[in-house]
Specification:
With 86 residues, the protein is α+β, with helices and mostly antiparallel strands. It has a single domain, classed as Rossmann fold (3-Layer(aba) Sandwich). Helices cover 45% and strands 12% of the residues. The protein contains 5 helices and 2 strands; from the N terminus they run αβαβααα. The protein has a two-stranded parallel sheet with strand order 1-2. Helix 2 links the parallel strand 1 and strand 2. Helix 1 crosses helix 2. The longest helix is centred in the C-terminal third of the chain and has 14 residues. The chain is flat, with a radius of gyration of 13 Å. The model has no long low-confidence stretch (mean pLDDT 87).
Length: 86
């Protein structure tokens, strides 16, 4: 699955981006499964509320950078508490 791209899945990304739910897009700079070169296109299609690039991280951010991933998720959820409560 190396160099797995979003090609052929753009409609899925676009539909997901139109759901009206808050999306956090986080991407590792060293991801060899879905390379960072796809970040801009994924961002354009998903229209996330927040985008983060995780330096020196591959495809498995929760395992490779657990503290950074937890901080991203925590701050994203905390900032979106109004949407979660409703």
């Amino acid at each position: 699955m190396q160099n797995y791209s979003i090609a052929g899945r753009e409609d899925l990304y676009r539909r997901t981006g139109s759901l009206g739910i808050p999306i956090l897009l986080a991407w590792g700079t060293n991801d060899r499964v879905t390379p960072i070169s796809g970040f801009d296109r994924a961002r354009d299609l998903l229209r996330p509320a927040r985008c983060e690039i995780i330096e020196n991280c591959g495809h498995m951010a929760p395992y490779e950078r657990p503290a950074d991933t937890a901080d991203l998720l925590s701050s994203f959820i905390t900032a979106r508490h109004d949407r979660i409560d409703s």
